[in-house]
């Protein structure tokens, strides 16, 4: 009897095994999934950055302060950050297919809601819905690419994915600027709506689960702590210039709640984030470097449009076009770095990346120039040439819209002058110095900013930067 039972069990298992093998995706199907994942992250990055160029218009259309208009950025970041902490658990519980299709549904709903937003709170609510898409896609797509990447191609696929995100970040500003300038703010939101709808249709035929689902519990208290901690810190930071000590207190509360979130992850059986990875010094160092680099890119994409539109008077379209250039450089660097990573590892990329971040930028000084005949300036208004030898007094002043982890110096014939250098240990928004130097005929003088965040926005409507060159004898 036992033998017959075994045969029946084996016979019953055979069709199931064959069915499983028949459903195993081919290599061609996996490449379709990879392309679909890239397209979804392109949409996510587009939705993330599409409002950067629109803040000035949001402030005008809804009659709110610029700091209040910035809530469409802040709330999006808070919700997306919270969702990112849950993404790994959500993917294991519900599978890749449901997660990706759900993200496209929220992207479509959020975009349509923004297109018909009749008041500012509805606009913010629409951004909350869209943030679910970006918060899910960025980590889930990375994890999925690692799981299905051909042998030896994981680094290349991750770099291509970063490049695709960069393309979304690059083309969002000019597209947003074009639509805002010539069609109005509401037309801007139809682009992600159409993309979401098209990908949703394609997803039903392309996307599938790549790992078995797990009945993994998701800790609700951890989600609340993540949301409250990130929310308090970022809202306080947004209001620090208006409410001072009260905003600082809110930031401290946020940090305390974040610390409680981290502590809880080390105490529960199924944490949202496995904090044990931070025990490895290499991992921790890498994460710190990523945070610093990302801060620089976010600073560039947020404050530069505000300066170009609010202070320089450029249209949203022109501001978006200007911003496209540095972001396309980022996207190109992502594609190139993938090949370098595959051949040589991270070592040549990290030092080179840090060198680029820390490299200085010359400060242009085009306005209110009073130049004697013996001092000339180049076309970019960055390099001044002293044509008469003598002893000179050189002084400069730089004022930025926000405190920066940056420094300033005078370049004499392209070399930093130590006495003129300000390299603070804390972030500053005001830099000034004065030196006496003997200069030969033909000496060049430039004002340079350098540091972690060198893409500074000068204070509009006042002395953003000034340089004085006075011959004493």
How would you explain this protein's 3D organization?
By secondary structure, the protein is α+β, with helices and mostly antiparallel strands. 63% of the residues lie in helices and 13% in strands. The chain has helices at residues 2-23, 27-49, 55-62, 66-69, 71-115, 120-148, 154-182, 185-188, 190-206, 220-238, 240-265, 281-311, 316-344, 349-358, and strands at 361-362, 375-377, 384-386, 390-404, 406-412, 415-416, 428-439, 443-451, 465-471. The strands form two sheets. Strands 1, 2, 3, 5, 6 and 8 form a six-stranded antiparallel sheet that branches. A hairpin with a 2-residue loop joins strand 5 and strand 6. The termini are far apart.
Relevant terms:
globular, 473 residues, single chain, alpha+beta, 3-stranded antiparallel β-sheet, Growth Hormone, Chain: A, 2 domains, Jelly Rolls, 63% helix, disordered N terminus
| Number of domain modules | 2
Residue ranges: pLDDT <50 for 5 or more in a row?
A: 1-23
| Rg on CA atoms, Å | 27 Å
Distance between the termini: 114 Å
Instruction: Please report the number of helical segments.
Output: 14
Mean of pLDDT: 78
Report strand %: 5-15%
**Which overall shape is indicated by the principal axes computed on the Cα atoms?**
globular
What is the CATH superfamily of the largest domain?
MFS general substrate transporter like domains
How would you spell out the order of helices and strands?
Answer: HHHHHHHHHHHHHHEEEEEEEEE
From the helix content, strand content and strand pairing, which structural class follows?
Answer: alpha+beta
Q: Which CATH class of the largest domain is shown?
A: Mainly Alpha
What is the helix fraction of residues, given as a range? 55-70%
Largest sheet: 6 strands, antiparallel
Quaternary state reads: single chain
* Secondary structure tally: strands: 9
Please name the CATH topology of the largest domain. Answer: Growth Hormone, Chain: A
CATH 2nd-level architecture of the largest domain: Up-down Bundle
